[in-house]
Amino acid sequence: MAAVQRRLQISNPNFLSLIIALSLLLVISSAKVIFEERFDDGWESRWVKSDWKKDENMAGEWNYTSGKWNGDASDKGNYIILWVMCTFNKDKALVFQFSVKHEQKLDCGGGYMKLLSGEVDQKKFGGDTPYSIMFGPDICGYSTKKVHAILTRDETNHLIKKDVPCETDQLSHVYTFILRPDATYSILIDNEEKQSGSVYSDWDILPPKQIKDPEAKKPEDWDDKEYIPDPEDKKPEGYDDIPKEIPDTDAKKPEDWDDEEDGEWTAPTIPNPEYKGPWKAKPFLLPENKESQLQGQVDSTIDRQPRHVNLSLAFDYFKDDPDLYVFPKLKYVGIELWQVKSGTLFDNVLVCDDPEYAKKLAEETWGKQKDAEKAAFDEAEKKREEEESKDKPVDSDDEL
């Protein structure tokens, strides 16, 4: 009998709270792989299912299954897990990766995972439990189809300011979040970079480096116009001689046209595509406005005091944090989400400090199975359509 690939699958909707308890895993500071879960033998000892929402009869259920269509019938996944980690990403990259498949053609619900710090009661882990990083796809209706990348500092959750669309089909996809020691990041889907930038600019974790100068005033000779006609742009020779309309060369004299009665026939005119309207010089950006974004702004550092104080405003100063990328004392990996329809599968969870290893793992798992999974999905869809056509009532006219 062929081996069966299994994955963690939501078999019942509503609130689902699982925490990954990374068993008593010895974490060495120089290790590249901190946690890797492929849901093979022994996975039950590494995961703890939370009782969150159980008393309210709103807790969902999880299955250990290969799903309806798969590329490897031996690959499985299951439960919410908690795991003991350490501050491993100091001076190193933090890579958080997993695969997820919405087999049920998700209408509204999450497919994200979380990294948590501090002490957590695994059996009570849920939506109110503080977390350090939340990452992964979220879908709801037509308006929400995005990848969450939420970073928590000082008990405040900061959402990424850039839009990162997620995949919405019924196949497996790999989501990767990379956070580097220079505070840059990358978000990948299926090993392709979809978004990148800096934590400084793409999250509002720190106050901005520049603020509006409360004493800034517009110079008396300031020109509000950002653009003026370019004085170097000259009207082409013969521009004014171009007619607005030209005879329609495709027009033909009507057969019943009588020159004696109707007069001499002339072809109707059509708009001349060469005519561009009255000539205007190209717009030219005023030199003094090239740096207009900096006008009226000052550095927002802690050592610069404002020249006057407005007591009605809370004045936040920028102070650099060289450890902005560090998330100390990470201990747990958790899956906490809400869904209207069940059927989402999670697999191949990875936390490491090596983006190349994450890429290799994605290629060895998702990369080798995606074509077979797609073929299995297409076959399942074909059978579904055939069954639906059999059950469809036959119109009486079609029988004749």
From TrEMBL:
Residues 199-273, 365-400 are annotated as: Disordered. Disulfide bonds join 108-140. Keywords: Calcium, Chaperone, Disulfide bond, Endoplasmic reticulum, Lectin, Metal-binding, Repeat, Signal, Zinc. Pfam families: Calreticulin. Transmembrane segments: none annotated. One of its GO terms (cellular component) is endoplasmic reticulum membrane. The keyword Chaperone applies. One of its GO terms (biological process) is ERAD pathway. Residues 210-255 have a biased composition (Basic and acidic residues). Residues 1-31 form the signal peptide. It is found in: Endoplasmic reticulum lumen. An alpha-D-glucoside binds at residues 112, 114, 131, 138, 336. InterPro entries: Calret/calnex (IPR001580), Calret/calnex_CS (IPR018124), Calreticulin (IPR009169), Calreticulin/calnexin_P_dom_sf (IPR009033), ConA-like_dom_sf (IPR013320). One of its GO terms (molecular function) is carbohydrate binding. Belongs to the calreticulin family. Molecular calcium-binding chaperone promoting folding, oligomeric assembly and quality control in the ER via the calreticulin/calnexin cycle. This lectin may interact transiently with almost all of the monoglucosylated glycoproteins that are synthesized in the ER. This is Calreticulin. It comes from Buddleja alternifolia.
